[in-house]
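Hi team,

Filling in the usual template for the complex we talked about on Friday. All components are listed, including any nucleic acid strands or ligand strings, so the model treats them as one assembly.

SUBMITTER: L.P.
PURPOSE: interface mapping
COMPONENTS: two
RESIDUES: 754
SEQUENCES:
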Amino acid sequence: MIKKRLFTPGPTPIPESVMLRMAEPIIHHRNPEFGEILTRVHENLQYLFQTKGPVVVLTSSGTGGVEATFTSLFSPGDTIIAANGGKFGERWVKMPKAFGLNVVELKVEWGKAPTADQIRELLKKHPETKAVYLVHSETSTGAATDVKTLSEVIRKESGALVCVDGITAVGAHEMRFDDWGIDVCVTGSQKGLMIPPGLAFVALSQRAIAAMETAKLPRFYFDLRKAVKAWEKNDTPWTPAVSLVIGVDAALQMLRQEGIEKIWERHRKLATALRMGVQAIGLKLFSETPSYAVTPVWVPEGVEWKAFNKIIKGKHGITIAGGQDDYTGKIFRVSHLGYYDALDMVTVMAAIEWSLAECGYKVELGKGVGTVMQQLM
Amino acid sequence: MIKKRLFTPGPTPIPESVMLRMAEPIIHHRNPEFGEILTRVHENLQYLFQTKGPVVVLTSSGTGGVEATFTSLFSPGDTIIAANGGKFGERWVKMPKAFGLNVVELKVEWGKAPTADQIRELLKKHPETKAVYLVHSETSTGAATDVKTLSEVIRKESGALVCVDGITAVGAHEMRFDDWGIDVCVTGSQKGLMIPPGLAFVALSQRAIAAMETAKLPRFYFDLRKAVKAWEKNDTPWTPAVSLVIGVDAALQMLRQEGIEKIWERHRKLATALRMGVQAIGLKLFSETPSYAVTPVWVPEGVEWKAFNKIIKGKHGITIAGGQDDYTGKIFRVSHLGYYDALDMVTVMAAIEWSLAECGYKVELGKGVGTVMQQLM
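RESULT (copied from the run log):
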């Protein structure tokens, strides 16, 4: 008997209490009971994003949420800058191009983050820029972007909107939507929000809402004007994924009870401890500016990723993520995003040690775990 | 955010898939769908107990299941021998006395198990003995009784029925009801069967069934003749706890899939590894004949049980059990009964180390965990 334990940066583990809430008999979305739920969800989302403005709930993946921002805020030919340092950054280059936007790509080496100087330079070169898209936590590389600093730079240097892919950052990294002057921030349900995939959440500033009025790209389902109008009445424009909204209501109440600052701090601590642990057994980290959501680690020399993954999954029930594109087979990624505590880091560290040892890697069993334990004591 | 993790010898953790099955809308117990479930449950219970005879399902705690065996098999004044080496052994001395049976108590020091010589001697002294009650795994002390050997002795020396409290043993320790010549074996639902409390399961031999015919103690709800008659039609005499039966159906299917021999071996391995781990950090085991269901450990000198328990529970979310009676505050008990895997032993060992260290006990963090890992690699 092997328990299944998920250490991937989305889907992330679902708390048992949330699973059971979602298993309750379905209710109708025009029922007053559902209205109460959605009202509470809207309020708690504002807390999560640290904003007084709207955070709308869309029934789609996180990618759908980002698409809604492109089609709702811009017109054909508009220029946007998109930072691309991984699989998701790359997607936010391809997607706006598909809608006829003029995309200035800021290419960043995998594992690194865009700098203030790079952004400043591009904004000077392209004064017509309508928005800058940043990836707060790039899941494919584990690199975190300093959104606070870059947002300040963008605000100071231009009138461009600050648009943030917060998909694996919201609920893991400090992010203060209003204070930091962010205009758009998107997250998904199967990340820091700890429920299954199917919902996207989009926070919008007054500047973003104003931009929607002149935006000319065709849109309907993802029209954020409709979403904001419905939000004002604690409603949704289309039938929402009811059981997922019920789940996110339970999850948001858990988050609220823990407190957002404590949640950010928990992610920082868990990520840091795991990193010390893997380094204590001689492994090397991939990213230079590590995100607190996910830790990518180089597969050590002499170890085959496929063999390692077969053991950690088949023998120990642990699902971690592999590398993508050029880094397939070269790195593995361990998540600490969402419903994880200190003992989970002990657990995954032990499974990493066992699996590497079985692949012939020399490791003193318990050394990484001991380091994790010292860090989290 | 701290996850709650249960390491008590009943209730034991409930698999998520079983919880969700029990959360499904209730069905009627006279519905054919429920009949199918009960038929499968009956068949899988025979596999669990390794018997071709009836294993009846009672809606009661395990204690109720044991009471059913006393009131259904004996008459006032009948002599029974009851081995008492802990809280549960003690209960099986008090209970039959309450029904007017003549109880010969075989007192065993806590932490030890009754021996073949002791049983042989008592049977010689009391040739009128109708039954010998043994506790396979004494939860209060972590001591296991060698049921196989003692059953042979009882069978050879007398015509007494071999009655086994298997409450924390079934599903953890090797137990072959038919092959070992056992006549009565009882377990509860919240133990090796991994569901909430509320059901008892009683296996009965042909000799036990015959004894019911002449037994004169008054009984009704717990009349095992009624239970066996209903069992023959894959039914129950009274309304059963439907959702718990649905849960045990799911749990038994999991057990069947893993295989009973593998389950026994898993418990042996996990218990052995945890014991090596606690000893590696200088702790001492309480029991001389340890059960694979639970490990009682002496609280080390200089550590206050209450302070230790407050930390392991409050800071690490881990519920373990304390000592009982004379051993309150002197020992703690860690369970490996039911839904546990290797990484769970790593987890509880880490929490023990952290909590002891915080109580001022000198421990090299990770040493016990490393030992557990080496054992379970």
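MY TAKE: The first strand of chain A starts at residue 5 and ends at 6. Chain A is about 45% helix and 15% strand.

Thanks, L.
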